[in-house]
Design goal:
The complex is a heterodimer of chains A (407) and B (350). Chain A has 407 residues and is mostly helical. With 350 residues, chain B is α+β, with helices and mostly antiparallel strands. The chains are: A mainly alpha (407), B alpha+beta (350).
Chain lengths: 407, 350
């Protein structure tokens, strides 16, 4: 049979099956089970209406149960077994003894902080800057485009950017081609030390200001809000502090490191930095997502509050940070946590670019390694459980915020 | 405090001109109301004074300074917006103090000023609340508080009461008026509600289609409207307009003969519009004969809608009347001196 015909039959049967299910089950409910006639018509109608939502929920609940809830319990069970024998927490203790696991944890934490921070910050910047200009929509389309590329596709593109060839050959990697233009003169000083140094310094200042702004209400006491607000502030401040520490070490490096000019670099095997080169790919993809959501939120800020701030004598920076950003804070939190969940599951990028070599391993790829390469179901399941434990609180927080947003 | 002077002010959006050369003098300490139908340019004028809209040509002066090219924050004005425009993430106190904070004022001084303004407006118990926890009237007061803490030279109000319910509107009207009497700050107030304009203003500016139709004290506008637009816009129910021709010292309108105001000389045969306020119409042996369509008692007075040759006249009676719908009635001006006569061709007053 022609595959197109097969596909058509599947569509007709699938859609027809769904329609048929909803139609027939409702018909059964209304005509046979609780018919709206006879002496009990009123009671029957209200009973039917109580059952109806469950008719609609039933297929989704079965599918979710089969493909989501059952695997969770099965994985939990598998993580306690080795070769079909129950071994308690042995898989976990074996895993905690592996340096590669802790490397994955460390890298995941780094990803967890850097990628959402970078994507949200760049997304917010892009949303604000493209807001009022005529070609803003074109710019937005371009920034959004990476969202349409699969993670593996994006990884291939960026692998070409980071590509390295031997010294005597022409460099096809964009980054190396640029790098070889620098030879240590004044231009190199400006572009590789002064400019990035100033940028990092500015970001550092911004982060320290953020830490201060987040902690100030705590120090002052008074109306600091509820427990969750307090916890949110402390977590936010810790994240900002961590990023500030990273940036400070960068600053030292920018100022002091000897740069090997004239040599092509193997970017993806540079320890520490290669993780950042991988994160750049995800930031590149997720910035578009953050921008679109935040752009809509910025449009929703009432125009008259901005005009009032203008009359109150606020400059554009003050209007942005003190009037606009606080008003879209709930959206920023939702964007941040959504990206955080994507990051915790990050797998394709690492697999396609380094496969976890050179200290770039992350949890999801570690799990894949154990499950499908080492065929160690016990340890693989144990690492899967760790990922789930990490995702769950963020997911709960995200759903909570999204629902609050909708109200 | 300062006077505001506007000279030959024009505003265009692209090729579309919306304000056509306005001249207006606002005296120091005056309460001026800009009133007109929607789209008449009153809000645009206010926003140009505020600096939120650019001036196409002409001059705006506040006090001695020409402010055309000054940013809003340097014009020493404060504005109350229609939707209050409170910062939802700031407390009432922070909302009121924001402008002072932006000015770099000392924290203690800000606190003191905010407290004083809150006392004036009865907002002291709400200083730590967020705007979402306030009622409409309280939000309105916070918006006013935000304006008065700055102690500006001019207050600008952009339809501040249109979001309130009828009862609160009347109450806030009085409050704003009282506040003005206390602070004596020059105020420009935009509204489309002529009652608001009449009750609050020292001076009313009636606008239409980007032009000023008439400027004057409320009763001046009521008693001597410069043209048919002002005549029909000011006063509720609005003035009755009857088209007619001058004949032998009277006005002939349809089958009726109406007296000219005493002392008025109008050329024989001139087409005119004969304007009578509803309260100046009364039962009379001869005049305009018609059928009563509706009787609307309001308690203090009774409005009677009379249908005459397909047109409607409204008469207001102070006394209780026994007329019923369907009755015949003859109406004529009670006081011929209170009649307004306009040129039919131009609409201007004779």
């Amino acid at each position: 049979m022609n595959p197109a015909l097969q596909a058509l039959i599947v569509i007709v049967v699938g859609v027809g099956g769904c329609v048929g299910y909803f139609f027939l089950s409702n018909l059964f409910l209304d005509k046979v089970l609780f018919p709206a006639r006879g002496p009990n018509a009123g009671v029957n109608t209200s009973r039917a209406n109580m059952i109806r939502p469950w008719l609609f929920l039933f297929p989704a609940m079965v599918a979710l149960g089969l493909y989501l809830a059952y695997p969770v319990f099965a994985t939990a069970w598998l993580s306690l077994n080795r070769n079909g024998e129950f071994v308690g927490l042995a898989n976990y203790s074996a895993m905690f003894g592996e340096p590669k696991f802790w490397e994955s944890m460390r890298n995941n934490m780094l990803w967890l902080v850097v990628v959402p921070a970078g994507s949200t910050a760049f997304g917010l910047l892009a949303a604000q800057l493209t807001d009022r200009i005529r070609w803003g929509n074109l710019a937005k389309s371009l920034i959004f485009m990476p969202m349409a590329i699969s993670f593996v596709g994006a990884s291939v593109i960026w692998k070409l950017i980071y590509d390295t060839r031997p010294v005597e050959q022409a460099q096809i990697g964009l980054l190396n081609a640029l790098w070889l233009k620098f030879e240590g003169g004044i231009g190199s000083f400006l572009l590789l030390r002064l400019l990035p140094g100033l940028f990092v310094l500015a970001m550092l200042a911004l982060l320290l200001w953020a830490v201060w702004a987040l902690l100030r209400p705590l120090v002052k006491g008074g109306s600091a809000g509820g427990f969750w607000v307090l916890a949110g502030r402390i977590v936010g401040a810790l994240v900002a502090l961590f990023l500030a520490w990273e940036l400070a070490t960068w600053l030292v490096g920018i100022a002091g490191n000897d740069l090997p000019y004239g040599q092509p670099m193997t970017w993806l095997s540079m320890p520490y930095w290669n993780s950042y080169f991988l994160m750049a790919v995800l930031i590149w993809i997720q910035t578009g997502f953050a921008m679109v959501i935040l752009s809509a939120a910025l449009r929703g800020v009432p125009e008259d509050t901005i005009e009032a701030a203008l009359l109150d004598g606020a400059n554009p920076f003050q209007i942005f940070f003190q009037i606009k950003v606080p008003q879209i804070m709930p959206t920023i939190v939702v964007v941040w946590t959504t990206i955080t969940i994507v990051v915790l599951k990050v797998f394709d990028i690492v697999l396609a670019m380094t496969n976890g070599q050179w200290e770039t391993q992350v949890l999801a790829n570690y799990m894949y390694d154990k499950l499908f390469r080492a065929l160690d179901w016990g340890m693989g399941s144990a690492s899967a459980m760790i990922i789930m434990l990490l995702v769950t609180p963020i997911l709960v927080w995200n759903v909570y915020n999204a629902r609050k947003e909708m109200r | 405090m300062a006077e505001v002077t506007i000279r030959a002010l024009k505003k265009s959006y692209g090729g579309l001109q919306v304000v056509h050369g306005l001249d207006l003098d606002i005296v120091d300490g005056e309460f001026v109301v800009l009133v007109g139908p929607s789209g008449c340019g009153k809000s645009t004028l206010l926003r140009m004074i505020a600096g939120l809209e650019e001036v196409t040509s002409g001059d705006i002066r506040i006090g001695e300074r020409r402010v055309n090219n000054l940013p809003p924050s340097e014009r020493d004005i404060a504005m109350v917006f229609q939707n209050y425009a409170l910062y939802p993430h700031k407390t009432v106190a922070a909302n009121m103090g924001f402008a002072l904070k932006m000015r770099g004022m000392d924290k203690a001084e800000i606190d003191q000023r905010v407290k004083r303004a809150a006392e004036v407006l009865g907002l002291t118990p709400y200083l730590d609340r967020f705007p979402r926890a306030l009622s409409g009237g309280q939000r309105q007061r916070v918006a006013m508080g935000r304006a008065i803490v700055r102690d500006p030279q001019v207050f600008l109000f952009d339809e501040p009461l249109s979001n309130l319910d009828a009862k609160l509107r009347v109450q806030m009207r009085t409050e704003i008026r009282e506040l003005h009497q206390r602070l004596k700050t020059t105020t420009v107030y935009v509204t489309h509600d002529q009652i608001e304009a009449m009750t609050m203003a020292d001076k009313i500016v009636v606008m239409q289609g980007g032009r000023i139709e008439q400027v004057g004290a409320p009763l001046e506008l009521y008693d001597r409207p410069a043209n048919t637009f002002v005549a029909s816009f000011i006063g509720s129910p609005s003035m009755n307009m009857i088209e007619g021709t001058v004949q032998g010292g009277t006005v002939r309108a349809g089958g009726a003969t109406l007296p000219l105001p005493p002392g008025m000389k109008v050329a024989e045969g001139r087409e005119v519009i004969y304007g009578i306020r509803p309260e100046n119409l009364g039962d009379s042996p001869d005049g305009i004969r018609g059928t009563i369509a509706v009787v609307e008692p309001t308690g203090s007075e009774t409005h009677v809608v009379v249908r005459i040759e397909g047109r409607e006249l409204v008469a207001v009676f102070r006394d209780r009347i026994s007329h019923r719908p369907g009755d015949q009635i003859t109406l004529a001006p009670v006081d011929p001196a209170g009649v307004h006569l306009f040129d039919k061709a131009t609409g201007t007053r004779f």
